[in-house]
Amino acid sequence: MPRPGDRELRARHGQWRIAVGNRLRTRWNGFGAPKMSESTASPPNIGSGPEGKSHWLQYSAGGGDECLNSRRQKGNHRSEGYDSAMLRRLALFVVVTISLTGCRLKSFTYELGEPQPEGEYSSLHTMPDGALLVLTKREEQPKQIWNLRRIVAWDTSEPREDDLEVDVGPNDELWPPFESDLKDRSDQLLMDPGGNYLVVRFAPDIASWNQNFGESAKSLRSVLNIIDLHNFKLLSRVVVTDPLLAAGDMGFSPNGTFVVSGAQERTSATIDDKVATTGHFAVETLTLPALKPETLCSYTITTRPYIARTPSTPKEARLLETQRWLEVERERNQNQAAEQACGPKLTPLGFSSLNDVREKLNWWELAVDPAEPLQNVPPQSPWGCQCQDLSPDLKYALYDCDEGRVQITFFFRYRGFRVFRLADGSQIMDLKVAHRPEYSGVLAAKGGVTYVVLLRDGAELEGYRLP
After folding, report:
1. Residue 144 in contact with residue 167, Cβ under 8 Å?
2. Dist CA 102 CA 99 (whole Å)
3. What mean pLDDT do residues 70-83 have?
4. Which pTM value belongs to this model?
């Protein structure tokens, strides 16, 4: 959350960077270094559009390895008779810059037509057709309105922005680092892989429903805003109180069917001096935009929580152990029966099992374990790294790293974005960024080329082409 004085501090810092940058560019270009220019090759030049400003930047010497080009240029300096002390200072600056930026130059920048106002928070997302989506939330109460900004043709000379506001209702949503861009992407922005619909869902009562289903069900509510992606307009806004729709795992199946899975009802009763909880579950498909439900399957699961206690005799210990294993076996049999009832009906949707439904639709499962694609990526401890996005072709993974998430640091805190090749887990890019302003990042593809695109403080996009 922005703090008082942040805007002035950023403004002063920006003015200092511009002044220093101008001085360094003047000296650097004076030594015959390759100048930054707007390229006429692909990607195309981008000028000032009606909504914002964009610039595609690359070395006129041919693009290639920017760090290698910089070092080659230094070999010609001594023969031109320039002051050696200045050359040493310049060489030191190049080395420091290389170490801080990870040897990567921006492929493009794009200034949004209307930057994020103070007191708001933005996150960046990709859309099925390759467009970018900026979600902006207000921090003040009541936080009802979310702004959606679609940026199409961001890889051309004339990017275009489309804006839409949706009312999600009053809420007490936590802000980063307690909420994450990944939660926005997997729980609140439900995108049709076919590119027809976007469902913006806000369900603030899921946690209370799962923890205290008896009382919380009385006030359970969720808001669904259904958007036509072709025209980028709101089709309907629906407030739902049905437990399955309001608190279930919701999203699009691999084949594009809108699905919800979860509990329709939960009850509790005391059996043999133990409180047993019975849940009645269902998997439904929903039409869009009407949300007409059709039940695929339903099943019942009864659980009896195991309460550990110290046995007084060996006989009692054996009895407790037997009871525990009988309970485990009983739950396993119930789960197998549910799989047998639902499995064949889930296959046409692209799901392999009920567990697969949960892994693909439940935001917590996605946040904790994006599963198979990341199995080759080495652990990133202790940098506070989280998998932020996978490339559309599932070849790369983007990690958002902030050392401040895992330990208190006052100096030299690491903050950056790392890209890994999924085939072998090798790191191919490390983009170090400032601790402030806020950054949100995705992997976006256009024309067969994949970019890391960062949203800086809800005001500017920065693009880095993957090698």
Report:
1. yes
2. 6
3. 41
4. 0.72
